Amino acid sequence: MIHRPPASEEDFLNLIDRHFATAHPHMRLGRGDDCVRLACPQDMVLSTDLFLEDVHFRRSYFSPADIGHKALAVNISDIAGMGCRPLGFSLGLVIPDDPTLTTAFWNDLLGGMGALAHTHDIPLTGGDLSRGPYLGFSVTVWGTPGPTGRVLTRNTCRPGDAILACGPIGLARAGLFALEELGPEAIALVPHAIRAHLRPTPRVADGLALADIPGVHGAMDLSDGLARDLARLTGPGLGADLTLTESALHPDLIAHCTRTGQPALPFAVLGGEDYALIATAAPDSVPDILARIPQATRIGTVAATPGITVNGQPFDHTGFDHFATHE
Amino acid sequence: MIHRPPASEEDFLNLIDRHFATAHPHMRLGRGDDCVRLACPQDMVLSTDLFLEDVHFRRSYFSPADIGHKALAVNISDIAGMGCRPLGFSLGLVIPDDPTLTTAFWNDLLGGMGALAHTHDIPLTGGDLSRGPYLGFSVTVWGTPGPTGRVLTRNTCRPGDAILACGPIGLARAGLFALEELGPEAIALVPHAIRAHLRPTPRVADGLALADIPGVHGAMDLSDGLARDLARLTGPGLGADLTLTESALHPDLIAHCTRTGQPALPFAVLGGEDYALIATAAPDSVPDILARIPQATRIGTVAATPGITVNGQPFDHTGFDHFATHE
């Protein structure tokens, strides 16, 4: 039976119960009623993200466990981007009537999602299953600030603030492009880039640490690449002067750009789906930040005028609008 | 431009801002960051539901405003089914690249959703937009108990408890079947049934009133029809003896069944998508319930053994499993 799809909604729910705890201190009443009942802190943050087949992932090179992991990871990353920790999540699941989506497939997928939920000690509180024409996930995740009660937002910096990044820049984009070009064979070529795309790590500990440092002014998670997200971090009227060297980029990104004959720095700045955190901070707090978050690096300075420069040169590419109609 | 789709994500977000307030006491920080920041009560209930084109609605007979209304209504109904009131909601929106989904279409759709959100004074806190092959909504809604702090759940009744319903039984199913058979022309034939299917009313006030009456033991919202949902309300090991007369059914349901030549009572019991509330209560509290909620009716009694009887006859149909593969 493991080689056939779950036969009924009940079978599917039993499969979910196998991978996600039915009790948790955050749940006063667990899955199976009209709603979950939650024991909540007064201060919460919440986000909903979609993760759709052939828009956000492909079954041709994502393993089932990768799909389950990333569907949840990109959502937890939004909590990390606020400097908070996650508390729980709910799941809307669209399932096509496809014989290859077997019980074994779902075991692996829910196992990947469940492992990440376990890492962060967050319960799946419920959700909805529906038939639909393709595989899709809608995850809503919520969380709460750390002990200081501080939440990190955008639009909170001044010209001259340092811009910092926690996590590699552009590496996931190298993985995506290599996978799109070569399929699973890309894994042998640039394994870290592939992993950055398939298995991003939500940087909850980094976000909590940033929120704990008074000199940090704001933060967000890097989902659309520096070229698009920096203006969102600084807010309108401000810009960013980036100082980046190729030696600071991941070797897999360099390898991908060398193989495909393109300059590495613009590729990294266009980025996308890195789920690194980017933050702004008072310049004099940078040594403290780098001491407390060794994986953080300073990548630039907030500028008094809009736009991005890279090593003094204007950067004009704007990245990709996933929504716009390209005629 | 109103006759063309929104040209960019920014245009779409501006459209959302036109229909949904950007500030609300429940939101400490509104839309536009990685997460919304919420001011929360300690006791919350939360639910996620999908609302997908050609699974849950059809554009051929739902107006844009109907789609927007129902996508949110079925979710608020889950809060009502817990005897709670809604506080806020988030939205995952899948939008196909379809030239007929114009700015005018979205204005009407978001207008329908916004009007219902306004009725319940709940903010749209954020969410996600994505391209996808068909129109789809994932709504997550949360709420909190009324002044007594009581939450109504399932599996909380005893044999001999009264079963009550707030709202028509089976009426929305008559509307669905008439629409599927005749399209929009069905409106002239059975307008109340059509409205029950296209524009269900979440019964928040009824749910809060039920939660306020100590003799009420449990409740849920009726989404899959009595035939499937009664066993969920009573819990395993128990059943329901229903006492229903055709005179208690809505005239539009009778008209539909007469026209299509089928008995009305089984049709009503199979039901589906009524979003009425069903509740169990101590028999001696029924007069109080009927006095305080005049639209409530007693429809039966909890039985000590599983299964449903209707006016003493076993009822064997089980309704439709939206998930199962029908080979």
Automatic annotation (TrEMBL), chains A, B:
Binding site for Mg(2+) 4: 34, 47, 78
Alphabetically ordered keywords of this record: ATP-binding, Kinase, Magnesium, Metal-binding, Nucleotide-binding, Thiamine biosynthesis, Transferase
Stored PANTHER family: THIAMINE-MONOPHOSPHATE KINASE
InterPro entries hit by this protein: PurM-like_C_dom (IPR010918), PurM-like_C_sf (IPR036676), PurM-like_N (IPR016188), PurM-like_N_sf (IPR036921), ThiL-like (IPR006283)
Positions of the PurM-like C-terminal domain: 158-310
UniProt keyword annotation of Repeat present: no
Record-listed substrate binding positions: 56, 273, 320
Protein name per its UniProtKB record: Thiamine-monophosphate kinase
Organism encoding this protein: Desulfobaculum xiamenense
Alphabetized CDD domains for the sequence: ThiL
Superkingdom as given in the UniProt entry: Bacteria
Binding site for Mg(2+) 1: 48-49, 128
EC number: 2.7.4.16
GO molecular function list: ATP binding; magnesium ion binding; thiamine-phosphate kinase activity
Binding-site list for Mg(2+) 3: 34, 78, 221
Catalysed transformations (reactions): thiamine phosphate + ATP = thiamine diphosphate + ADP
Binding residue positions for Mg(2+) 5: 224
Pathway: Cofactor biosynthesis; thiamine diphosphate biosynthesis; thiamine diphosphate from thiamine phosphate: step 1/1
Record-listed Mg(2+) 2 binding positions: 49, 78
